[in-house]
Amino acid sequence: MWRKLYQWLEERLGLSDLYKSLLDRPEPKGNWWNTLGSASLFLFLMQGLTGIFLTVYYTPSPDHAYDSIQYIMTGVRFGWLIRGIHHWGASLMVLVVFIHMLRVFVTASYKYPRELTWLVGVGLLLLTLGMGFTGYLLPWNQKSYWATTVGTAIAGTAPFIGEFIMKALRGGSDLSALTLSRFFAAHIWILPGLLAALIGVHLYLIIKHGESAFPDKDD
Amino acid sequence: MTDSHHISRRDFIKLATIVGGGVIGTIIGIPGLVYLLDPALKSEQGETWISLGPLENFEIGKPTLVTFVRSRVNGWEKTSSSYGVFVLRKSETDVVVFSNLCTHLHCRVNWVEEKRAFVCPCHDAAFDIDGNVLGGPPPRPLDRYEGEHAKIEDGVIKILFKEG
User: Fold this and answer.
1) What number is the average pLDDT over the span A17-43?
2) Quick one: pLDDT at residue B70?
3) Is residue B41 within 8 Å of B33, Cβ to Cβ?
4) Between the CA atoms of A65, A66, A71 and A72, what dihedral angle is there, to the nearest 10 degrees?
5) Is the pLDDT of residue B77 over 50?
6) Helices A2-13 and A15-23 sit at what angle, rounded to 10 degrees?
7) Alpha-carbon distances of A55 from A68, A189, B34, B51, rounded to whole Å
8) Residue contact B35–A76, C-beta within 8 A
9) Distance between CA atoms of B158 and B152, rounded to whole angstroms?
């Protein structure tokens, strides 16, 4: 019965090919440092899942943002756990993505034919930092308010277009409800959408080229 | 590898991944589910006794409106609502407490002394002094606080008010 069902699906979906190319592909000899890409992917999925859970109670308005997070931490069972994972996972993700980049640099894995994988990876690193920057404002406490004030003011120091960038980030000349809601939109829709799309390209390129072997003395 | 191994290294890793992932998934998954369903699993606030004032405050034979405000906390939001009841002291010791909500569409009724009736401003419904329907659309008499929902304690009238 199950065999027949599997056969039916297999003929139409090609599951075993998918399994072979995704999970059963040949790998060069490596070490634990080679797992950081997968770790980054796992953290992205974890952040996505816990983030979706947080939006169930979080409200992106100056009147309610702080209180709704207090409610998540004290009023909802396991709210502390979900938010804790999201909070610490965010820092961990920046760290893991960065060390992943260092590993690729040290093992020279960015060279032909993987230059595009590297470039897309740079985009992924920047987007990850963007997620950290926008997510930091959402609790709407003193620390996040002033961190965002300073962060957007730094963007404002760019010559000529600085003030425009700052106003675009803040949604006006000051931090306001508009800032909070556009940071929220960026944090849950725009940046994750871009991240997911670029992760797709990144993974496609990795599967297409396979992982690079460590360079030896002749290289 | 010797023949004594019944499971290959590869299969062992696969199995360990599935079992480990399953355990971690369950440990995180169950709290996740509780988190999502938390408001449905909580019991709403119960009942409270509301004191309407001492017996001698009320004139015999004339319904008097008593209002009170109750606040409710939903998540991080606190809302206050005001409620009203009519207290009718029929004799020295006999007291009836009516809800002031019309039984038709829950508009608030007023006591009109000239007509000797509770009149609803929405659809001209009228109730007599005992809460019985005199005219208009209401399907049943005014609701009363009676039996175990009302008491007189140390000369003070109290009703058992249901939150929500």
Assistant:
1) 89
2) 87
3) no
4) 70
5) yes
6) 70
7) 10, 12, 15, 41
8) yes
9) 6
Could you report the per-residue pLDDT of A172-207, keeping only the tens digit for each? 999 999 999 999 999 999 999 999 999 999 999 999
Whole-number average pLDDT of chain B: 88
Q: Distance, in angstroms, between B64 CA and closest chain A CA?
A: 39
Cβ-Cβ contacts under 8 Å, A49 against chain B: 32
Least CB-CB distance to A53: which of B35, B75, B77? B35
CA–CA gap between residue B84 and residue B99 (Å, rounded):
7
Percent helix, strand and coil across chain A, each rounded to 5?
75, 0, 25
Q: If we measure between CA atoms, which residue out of B147, B123, B153, B146 comes closest to residue B135?
A: B123
Task: Kindly tell me if the per-residue pLDDT of A34 is higher than 50.
Answer: yes
Q: Is some CB atom of chain A closer than 8 A to the CB atom of B79?
A: no
> Which domains occur in chain A, in start order?
35-209 (1.20.810.10)
